[in-house]
Fold these 2 entries.
Entry 1:
Amino acid sequence: MSDQLKIKVTRRTDFGKGAARQARRAGLIPAVVYGHGQEPVHLLLPAQETTLAVRNPNALLTVVNEAGEEHLVLPKDIQRHATKDTVDHLDLIEVRRGEKVVVEVTVQVEGEVARGNEYVLDYVTVPVEADATDLPEAVTISVEGREAGDHVYAPDVQVPAGATLQLEDDIVIATVSEVVEQDLGDESVQEEQAAESAEGESEDESEGSED
């Protein structure tokens, strides 16, 4: 189920790229909270604590402002640095206990396909509706004994109690096919011929230098 962490935040009062860079240098992440018809709220979150929390993209956070007021939020959009393992900006959506939300959840695969076959996931994540305070971390499918030509469809996805998959029944989640073995015979012959040719040229050069 989704993580729930308390994070102390401060209201953001300075805006613009320069202010954002300054905040990041101070170990803070600019963020905006949306939801429930209210005006967006601009906040600053502690970088280290928040970066660890949102490694789970569906992490449920409790942000606590300067007045001690608590608000439940979920990550809506996470902007990460292009090369560093850091978060540059967050869009958060406020949720309430008992409220249903739709989030993308990772698909985990169980079992092994029949010998000589392999599977390909058509969906790495799937949309799932669940209680905001009880979000599943993953859903599962089984490929046990599946053979070439078999498909795993949306109804085959195992979803935790209380959650609902938001896909049509004819959506293919995974496809099974035969393993195609690459014939390396021709390549090996070509490599041997190239090696022999190079060896012959080397011998010719050696004889020429002796003359």
Entry 2:
Amino acid sequence: MPYSVAAQTPPSHGGRDQEIVVTARASPTPSEADDRYKPTPDASTLRSAASPLDTPQSVNVVPAQVIRDQRPRYLDDVLTNVSGITQGNTLAGTQDTVLKRGFGGNRDGSVMHNGTPVVQGRAFNAATQSVEVLKGPSSLLYGIMDPGGVINVVSKKPLLDTHLTVALTGSSYAAGRSGLEGMADLTGSLGGNFAARLVVDHQDEDYWRNFGERRDTLIAPSLAWYGPRTQAVLWYEYRKFDYPFDRGTALDPRTLTPLAVPRRQRLDDLNNRMAGSSHLVQLAVDHQLGGGWAAHLASSYNSETYDAGQLRVSGVNVARGTLTRSNDATLGSLGTDAYAQAYVDGAFGMLGLDHQVIVGIEFEYRRYYRRDLIRQPVRSTFSYGNPVYGLEAFPSAVSASDSDQTDRLYNYSLFAQDSIPFGDRWIVSAGGRLVGFDQRAGRGRPFVANTDLTAWEFVPQAGLVWKAADVVSLYASYTRSLKPTSTIAPLASGVTIGSGFAPERGRSFEVGAKLDIPDRITATLALYDIDKRNVLVSQFNTATGLTEYRAAGRAISRGVEFDVSGRITRTLSVIGSYAHTHARTTEDPVFAGKQLANVAPHTASLSAAYAVGPIAGDDNLRLGGGARYVAQRPGDSANSFRLPGYTVADAFVTYDTVLAGKAVTFQFNLKNVFDRTYYTSAVNVYGVAIGDPRRAIGTMSFRL
């Protein structure tokens, strides 16, 4: 992507402005008073400070003010504002699982934190500044990746101005289910060019269904140096969490519709919860070398561990009104990721042309490990018409053949890109990444490796931008993605995935148009065609009578997307999106011609905020609301059942005033205004996730 080194003035300290000349991932964020729906992209997403108009790829941003207005809980909630996004298998509501343009899954490596990979199940929290989405294959910038795109969660950074914000929140569902949250955000100068920040947040609330609690604690300090030539930010995040592990409801096998039970009624048991903790340490350094060149370093270490009770439904007997269930659990799950990156960028002239280049190296070690997989029969029959809970003790029968599940990946890369402007209107870019990877995966005691491969691959990318006007550009791009074919589970006949198995490869053509009016509005219209090949599939060999596995599957996704965000008038701001997604499996012995699971052919969203203005002097009233639509979609790869489409509306009101000389904000949000029952995703007919019912949220915040 094109890159520019630009001067920037951070928030002042003591009436003194400091010039910051490097604009990259360690640059200070906009002022906390920034109330615009017009997004300010973060340099960590594109590895540069390039204007969106100069980028031959769709980039969508959910800015800080939208997040403050909407009060989303999870990353999925934030991304309802972005086109082409649907929810996948969230592992019983404990993982961020984002399907981008039809592709993705939990733990697919597509969620980033300030441009570096994370293994946390939930990446969005009170320390988040904004969320950005880079659409389409992104292996040039991010390496091993599915072709749908990348989600970058951008953190709050220390500011040089001192302030403290304290917020108290109460929330309530029906049937007396309620919750409390307290948050404190302190930032300011430590003297000279040093700044620090501390975000602390604790949530404790009843789960909206008939039992369960949700607790989440975040401690997130950060330290920054904003010098004239060098900037550095060090982040740390600690989270402790205890969530319900809830797979939702099951379907009636006769009608393939949800069982006729109240939506509040759970089908599992009291031990179904996930408890764990995570640590994230990240360092970003940007340094101006001189002569228009800059160096950038980033490193991170991330870990998450949890234990989870996972009693699950495996059958429905409608005649008796009972369920077949298995008392399962996972103990000692540990995910770790260590990452380092270094690159330089700058400009030079050669053969009468200007070149803006980026050249870098990257290394990552990622490991998912689950120590004890417990598989145990239930003790009693469960009647979903007359449920009795608490009869099942936490299971203890460890399955040796399923335990010690391990997926370990090393990958190392060299990448480069050159962007060449032709006159004032044209930009041509081309680049590539050389990726090496070593992956080993398997399970069991004794351990059996079902994936063991080492390979090198090259991934190219090219783009063209025509700036039709100062605020309008048209673009076209050709991009590719790469992801090794791997599995933890054993394959038929002891087949091991080795270097003879080609990796999953994605290819995308994309064209689009962009509008970017400074301080007003940004919009993107994109048309794309993605082809993903070498998906691992099974096929029965009639000659040998064996099921053989080979990299032969193929899936496609073609669509149109539109996103808009910004200020329509002085008092009205909007963020909206629409996507048509045609995603299908095209080559597979069983699923050829089927739609991809959980991918809606149509999605849309629109939210608006209206500034009413002063009511009684030194105050300000804002009103807002919006709705999101997700069309009917298949719940599994076989398309054996479908999840109904839904429209959900939300609303909010904020009132800013001054009490005792301090700024105070009162905010009220109403989620799912019309209390719709809707289903967000499915794993199979026994695990259909239910969307949250109506929820009232009241917040009082003080700025000290």
